[in-house]
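A common beginner's mistake is to predict each chain separately and then try to dock the pieces by hand. The better habit, illustrated here, is to supply every component at once so that their relative placement is modeled jointly.
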Amino acid sequence: MGCTARRNFSESDRHMLESIFREIILEHYRKPRNKGVLENPTVTVSMRNPMCGDEIDLMLAIEDGQIQAVGFTGQGCSISQASVSMMTQGVSGRSVDEALDLEKRFVALMRDDEGASDDRKLGDLSALQGVAKLPVRIKCALLGWNALDEAIKAHKKSPTGAMGEKLEFEDLTELPAGFDPTTHKDDLP
Amino acid sequence: MPAELAESPLNMAVVRAEFPILDQQVHGHRLVYLDSAASSQRPAVVIRTIAEYYAKDHANVHRGAYELSVRATRRYEAARGKVARFLGAGRADEVVFTRSTTESINLVSMAWGRANLRPGDVVVVTEMEHHSNLVPWQMVCEMTGAEIRAIKVTDDQCLDLDHLDALLSEGNVRLVATGHVSNAVGTIHPVEEIARRAHGVGALYLIDGAQGAPQLPIDVRAIDCDFYTFSGHKACGPTGIGVLWGRRELLESMPPYQGGGEMIEEVRIERSTYAPVPHKFEAGTPNIAGAIGLGAAVDFLQSLGLETIHAHEKRIARLVLERLADEFKSITLYGPAPGVARGGVVSFTLADIHPHDLATILDHEGVAIRAGHHCCQPLMRRLGVAATARASFYLYNAEDDLEVLVSGLHRAQELFGI
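With all components supplied together, the output reads:
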């Protein structure tokens, strides 16, 4: 037992962390896209993770099934903020169905599904694939997507929107459906 | 032993050897456990005591007419005596075994609070309480029409005692409830002084000692509080066991908290009479093994000496604060300045790295810290942050752990391009 001023880091850990805290993620964390209050949204969803305090207000302006504009406010860790920033880029100008398709692809990436890491439609979002190796952080990456999912559900119920009304959600699940930490493949011996 | 460790009043090699869990690798590195404020680890003697109790002495306690039950009862009640001595209590029957600090506080808020609080009465808490010493009071205030007020926190996260005086002078204060040591920022509160002021207006004083009992010598009679609560699992004991100490006449005057077996004297269909304290508050089969394990834990802490543990905590906290401040330009340290009374908890944020990202990166260096609001959302709001990173150093942590933390924080800065 003694003091070591500087430690050696094992190669696998070095690689693991570098695969998560990649430059592009930090770039989105520090300069998030579409961050700010959206004027005249048709749907606004607030999604909070009460366990860690991360929160996102997601605002969408949907017209004729097209996401015309998107904005978000909130705060949280690099993973949650980068993920929502990239998500807004990915869904802006797309149809609601295209946005749901992207969500499905992103969830597959987080579940480390076969072939998901080669899915070109994910674009920059593929940079988050390292998070799939960290079950406790998957929720962070999905926070904004859960907000998107609720927003689209609300939109489908009431396509003209309830302008100004904010729908509030708490993300209380330990992990989203399909992620059982006891059966997550990386956790198996 | 390295010279720099020689200064600690604890023999670190000997202390660490008592904690089998520390002897392991996490992500290829020695485990550096800096989350004892959430739950401490257990010495081998506690683990052994529980295993031996189950292997040799277990039966249900009280009124058993056979040797094994007599033995289990004797061990359970002996643990109560050990806890009473640990707290400086005059008598063992002032110690109630509960599940946790949280349950102890709920017991007082429900049993004492519902019987005594009236509309217009005031319960005083603090802005820096753990939710478990806040929410139970909110609940009983809602039931009784009493009101809740919070002592303000100063800019260096101490309690503003002038504000306490102002609250007390407004009248109708029936009870003051504060922590002993802040779980979020480490402040040690002047509990004797708070007791004096609370009693000055005829209010009772309850202390949440979850962070106090593990690291400070406790003497409830010298403090002159009315209730003291703590949890086993933060004080080297088992999970699922907690303690409520209360002044005997208060416990006797309070109605029961839960009904059932163990807590009765005579039961008829319409009504029952209750057992004397402390059993009146221990409905159902208690956590016998937990109590006996806690007895072993307080013996262990006393064998090291609570004064010695406190001196170790004070020293390591000062070293951590000074080292982190020296090493990192962009660190923000919360809590009182070095030198002011504080425990082994150090709360901080580093540059623009979110505390959860810090925790993930440190985990990969084998370092376990906590990130979040630490169950103190009002304090976090007061500090203007959503979360902090918290490293809590306990009796088995020393400078070598600090150095691993420092190098892990350098690694975090490197990953974040700082």
